[in-house]
Specification:
With about 400 residues, the chain is of the alpha/beta class. It is built from 15 helices and 15 strands. The chain has helices spanning about 10-20, 35-40, 55-65, 75-95, 100-105, 150-170, 195-200, 215, 240-250, 270-280, 295-300, 310-315, 325-340, 365-370, 385-395, and strands at about 20-25, 50, 105-115, 125-130, 135-145, 185-190, 210, 230, 255-260, 285-290, 305-310, 345, 350, 355, 370-375. The strands form three sheets. The protein has a seven-stranded mixed β-sheet. Strands 2-1-3-4-5-6 form a six-stranded mixed β-sheet. A two-stranded antiparallel ribbon has the order 13-14. A hairpin with a 2-residue loop joins β13 and β14 (about 355). It is elongated. The two termini are about 30 Å apart.
């Protein structure tokens, strides 16, 4: 079954206008016909604020702050949708309108696709559409039957999926019905609709949120001074992290809490599905979700606390490259850490095939004076989250 038509554009634009939403759309090639379909319709400017086709990988990397492990994936699509949402929010605020972060009108949409080419593909033909709103993250995957449609037909199908998911996420699914599929083809959706506290964190209305079972009982709980904090991306959490936490608790003689910043200096904010997946790894272990992307921001959120980290993170603390290249700013940061942190517990780690002993790093004396260096005898486990992600990705694409 195939259908070369796209939804009637005036009807879709009118429905989105009635829903009072503002859209930003990124298409990395496949599905880009949805842009012209929307933009060529009278009245589209009141709905569609921005649309772009970051086709080459460097264009995607620029938007997402670095090389991606997979360019046609749920994660890449969700990251692009978050960037689109953030840009819509900025455009609305720059226009002097009521902030869409608060109203929930902003919608970020992204599509990544692997479609038919001149040379047969080894992997599947697939389309992945992500939609980000303040209230939810929505990601939809469609794996196509190979060899039964032309490239043009696959492109049209991808565009239909983009328009349909946009309409559905905005509460007007009748304006753009789902595309017709062949027997055996199925649309798979994941929707993460978190509690209001997570939405406030995502939108920048809060700085810190407790996650996990304990937080459900006390949603308004805040960090207290003098804690033992283990910051990280934990992507994924692995046995090395857990062993570091146990050793740190023995050294500090108090319980530890983990921290994940949903913001990054040069990367998109974590979407709700990503937040759920990472937070879900910790079970009953205490976890804070924050917007403290830098260590100096963490000192404010967790005053007079002891921080646990690896040698690679410790080495960055006094490095001017992480302070805009300013030696003076790096020196001020070192003084702030030395005076505001209760202490640092630093573990060695493998770096480029060589174990890096944190005690051998050249760092200012002020940092050394507040640091406990964990020896190789106490801890050594050559494992990294990057290695685990690569293994998982290789397995999913096999």
């Amino acid at each position: 079954m195939s259908d070369s038509s796209l939804p009637e554009p005036e009807r879709l634009i009118d429905a989105l206008g009635e829903a009072d939403v503002r859209l930003g759309l990124f298409a990395t090639g496949g599905g880009s016909a949805a842009i012209s379909h929307l933009a060529s319709t009278p009245g589209a400017s009141r709905v569609l604020l921005e649309a772009a086709v970051p086709y080459a990988r460097p264009a995607i990397d620029t938007l997402l702050g670095g090389t991606q492990e997979s360019y046609c994936s749920s994660r890449a699509a969700r990251r692009l949708a978050v960037v689109a949402w953030q840009r819509v929010c900025r455009l609305q605020e720059a226009a002097g309108e009521e902030p869409v972060k608060a109203t929930g009108r902003g919608v970020g949409i992204a599509v990544t696709a692997s479609l038919r080419t001149r040379q047969p593909k080894r992997g599947s033909h697939r389309v992945i559409v992500a939609v980000q709103r303040r209230v939810a993250t929505r990601v939809t995957t469609l794996v196509l039957e190979k060899g039964v449609r032309s490239r043009s037909e696959e492109e049209t199908l991808a565009a239909r999926l983009v328009l349909g998911e946009t309409a559905a996420a905005c509460g007007v699914p009748e304006a753009a019905p789902e595309p017709p599929l062949r027997a055996g083809e199925r649309i798979h959706r994941q929707i993460a609709a978190p509690p209001e506290s997570w939405r406030e964190l995502f939108a920048g209305e809060r700085t810190v949120v407790a996650a996990g079972p304990a937080a459900e009982k006390q949603p308004a709980v805040q960090p207290t001074a003098g804690g033992l904090i283990f910051p990280g991306s934990f992507d994924p959490l692995h046995e090395g992290h857990l062993l570091m936490a146990r050793i740190a608790e023995e050294i500090a003689e108090r319980p530890l809490a983990y921290e994940i910043s949903v913001t990054n200096v040069d990367k998109p904010t974590l979407d709700y599905l990503e937040m759920e997946q990472r937070a879900g790894q910790f079970g009953d272990r205490p976890l804070w979700l924050t917007r403290a992307a830098t260590f100096l921001e963490k000192l404010v959120v967790f005053p007079k606390s002891t921080f646990v980290m690896g040698a690679d993170t410790f080495a960055r603390l006094p490095d001017p490259r992480y302070y805009g290249g300013s030696t003076a700013a790096a020196s001020r940061a070192v003084r702030a850490i030395a005076t505001k942190a209760r202490g640092l517990i630093v573990f060695g780690r493998e770096q480029d095939g060589v174990f890096q002993d944190a005690a051998t790093l050249e760092v200012p004396k002020a940092l050394r004076d507040v640091t406990y260096f964990v020896s190789q005898r106490e801890f050594r486990l050559d494992i990294s989250s990057t290695q685990l992600r690569r293994r998982a990705l290789a397995g999913s694409e096999a």
